[in-house]
């Protein structure tokens, strides 16, 4: 059976609960610290065989405690070490005090450390317990080390990174590598924390998985294990209507490309039928570029209402290149009736900027049927208070937005978060940097629509679409265009 640890995310708060539960179940907490420190020391020796000296920077809490174990282990391995502490080591408590007592070497103040060629820094200043911004002298030390060529191996998290949010609290080490324990923390995946973490190693210090799972479970890394069980069964012989019918709204004659990209992505992603709903004026532009995607004229509410008499038409994408906010609001209103599902993207999101509640009211009832795909700017239009609240992590912003809208929110970026109204949230990590290209969002909207049309629940449809988008981006490679991205979609099916 596959372990959940690779995809589990635990906040520092969860990790504290894990600690307490582990102690309550009889595990020695100092034993955990000893294994953590030994693992970091082993990593240091393996990664930096040419180090002339290991400099261990120890903080005032248990992260510092890990550091004293590292120092003892590296000295026992015969390497040259120096230890610099923030604060008085005599003030250490609990396991950290035990680790310090076992170290028995000399300790200099943090401010006395000046990077020198051949050093490798082991950063054990702060981990899960960083609760506020760093003081000016610590910031100065971190910045001096970052500016030097001295590599940094971080214990648990690069000091200065907030483990809950990934934010930099004043300054943070740019680590070459980080060793964390049991599972990843949001700060390893969310930006800018992800950029500061370097290569991440996850070391099992022996906390039973049942304890981890009992404290976590709502948030995780976006991977097939989270949604594979609801992927549409590929029958091969399946009737095209079984694989669902997706309808995508085209923009006006001057902006037809975005809608077509969504429609073509939807078809490539397995929707049985895809229809582009186009105003008459845009018909010839659309017809000139489409073959397998069907075209239907929709000029206004009357046409759409007539179309909605077909009960098989359950899934819509509205927004890419759409332009007309007033019309988008009316179309969303019509679609919301019945059990229909809507992917609202781009201009479709912006259409509700003056009255987001109007949108939320449309989809307030029942299972989520609305998927919102905002980037940060669009998110701020619907959820200005959440966007402004710098105490929230991107995961928390997504969770709150999903709860408020009773929709699934795909908050896009290099660290895309997918969140559901019930509090589930996944952080995506497979998107290559070159995926941020023109039309990429249109392709994603079509992908989500295709997964919805094939009957997946909204959260899983959204998460699997984001993952598949990332994999296709990797397959298409650097220099991809929206077209090559669509072509690459089919190629990733076998690994889902
Ligand atoms: N989870 C596990 O199973 C295991 C976890 N282990 C390890 O424990 C680590 C977590 O330890 P931790 O909770 O003691 O927190 P840590 O990061 O050392 O910092 C707390 C100290 O820093 C202080 N402080 C905070 N912010 C500050 C600031 N801006 N500027 C200055 N001071 C600041 C804070 O002071 P206070 O806020 O209380 O005044 C307190 O003294 C975890 O990352 C991992 O390495 C392993 O041993 C194996 C088992
Ligand atoms: K650290």
Number of separate strands? 17
* CATH homologous superfamily designation of the largest domain: Ribokinase
N- and C-termini, Cα separation: 17 Å
Strand proportion = 5-15%
Number of helices: 20
Number of separate structural domains: 2
CATH class of the largest domain: Alpha Beta
Strand order of the largest sheet: 8-17-16-15-14-13-12-9-10-11
**Helix/strand class:** alpha/beta
Low-confidence runs: none
Mean pLDDT: 95
Residues in helices, as a percent range: 25-40%
CATH topology of the largest domain: UDP-N-acetylmuramoyl-L-alanine:D-glutamate ligase
Query: How big is the Rg?
Result: 26 Å
Largest sheet: 10 strands, mixed
Shape: elongated
- Named at the architecture level, the CATH assignment of the largest domain is 3-Layer(aba) Sandwich
Domain YjeF N-terminal: 15-213
Protein name: Bifunctional NAD(P)H-hydrate repair enzyme
EC number: 4.2.1.136, 5.1.99.6
Binding site for K(+): 63, 123, 159
SSE arrangement:
Elements: H1 12-24, H2 29-47, E1 53-58, H3 62-76, E2 81-85, H4 94-103, E3 108-109, E4 119-124, H5 136-147, E5 152-155, E6 177-181, H6 186-189, H7 193-197, E7 199-203, H8 209-215, E8 219-221, E9 245-249, H9 257-268, E10 273-278, H10 283-287, E11 294-297, H11 301-307, E12 315-318, H12 325-336, E13 341-344, H13 346-350, H14 356-362, E14 370-372, H15 376-382, H16 384-388, H17 394-405, E15 408-411, E16 417-419, E17 425-427, H18 440-453, H19 458-476, H20 482-489
Parallel strand pairs: 1-2, 1-4, 2-3, 4-5, 5-6, 6-7, 8-17, 9-10, 9-12, 10-11, 12-13, 13-14, 14-15
Antiparallel strand pairs: 15-16, 16-17
Helix pairs in contact: 1-8, 2-3, 2-4, 3-4, 9-18, 9-20, 18-19, 19-20
The structure holds ligand NPW and potassium ion.
């Amino acid at each position: 059976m596959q372990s959940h640890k690779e995809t589990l995310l635990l906040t520092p708060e969860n990790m504290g609960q894990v600690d307490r539960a582990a102690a309550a179940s009889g595990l020695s907490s100092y034993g955990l610290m000893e294994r953590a420190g030994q693992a970091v020391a082993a990593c240091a020796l393996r990664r930096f065989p040419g180090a002339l000296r290991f400099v261990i920077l120890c903080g005032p809490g248990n992260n510092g405690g890990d550091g004293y174990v590292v120092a003892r282990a590296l000295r026992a391995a015969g390497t040259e070490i120096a230890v610099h502490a923030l604060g008085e080591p005599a003030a250490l408590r609990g396991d950290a005090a035990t680790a310090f007592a076992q170290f028995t070497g000399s300790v200099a103040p943090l401010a006395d450390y000046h990077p020198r060629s051949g050093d490798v820094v082991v950063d054990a200043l702060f981990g899960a317990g960083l609760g506020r911004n760093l003081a000016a002298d610590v910031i100065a030390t971190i910045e001096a080390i970052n500016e030097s060529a001295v590599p940094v191996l971080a214990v648990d998290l690069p000091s200065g990174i907030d483990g809950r949010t990934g934010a930099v609290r004043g300054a943070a080490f740019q680590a070459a590598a980080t060793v964390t324990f049991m599972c990843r923390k949001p700060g390893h995946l969310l930006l800018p924390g992800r950029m500061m973490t370097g290569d991440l190693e996850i070391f099992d210090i022996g906390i039973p998985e049942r304890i981890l799972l009992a404290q976590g479970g709502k948030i995780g890394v976006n991977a097939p294990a989270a949604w594979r069980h609801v992927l549409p069964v590929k029958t091969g012989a399946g009737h095209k209507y079984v694989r669902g019918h997706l309808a995508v709204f085209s923009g006006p004659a001057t902006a037809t490309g975005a809608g077509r990209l969504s429609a073509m992505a939807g078809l490539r992603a397995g929707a049985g039928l895809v229809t582009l709903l186009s105003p008459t004026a845009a018909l010839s532009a659309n017809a000139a570029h489409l073959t397998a995607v069907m075209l239907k004229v929709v000029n206004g509410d009357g046409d759409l209402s007539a179309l909605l008499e077909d009960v098989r038409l359950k899934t819509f994408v509205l927004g890419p290149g759409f332009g007309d906010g007033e019309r988008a609001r009316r179309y969303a209103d019509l679609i919301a009736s019945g059990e229909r599902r809507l992917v609202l993207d781009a201009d479709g999101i912006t259409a509700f900027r003056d009255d987001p509640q109007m949108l939320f009211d449309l989809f307030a009832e029942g299972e989520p049927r609305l998927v919102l795909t905002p980037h940060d700017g669009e998110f701020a239009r619907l959820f200005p208070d959440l966007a402004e609240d710098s105490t929230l992590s991107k995961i928390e912003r997504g969770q709150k937005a999903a709860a408020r809208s009773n929709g699934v929110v795909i908050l896009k970026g290099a660290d895309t978060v997918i969140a559901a109204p019930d509090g589930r949230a996944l952080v995506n990590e497979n998107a290559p940097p070159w995926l941020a290209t023109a039309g990429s969002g249109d392709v994603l909207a079509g992908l989500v629509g295709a997964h919805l049309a094939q009957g997946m629940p909204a959260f899983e449809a959204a998460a699997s679409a984001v993952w598949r988008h990332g994999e296709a981006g990797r397959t298409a490679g650097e220099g991809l265009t929206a077209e090559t991205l669509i072509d690459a979609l089919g190629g990733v099916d076998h690994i889902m």
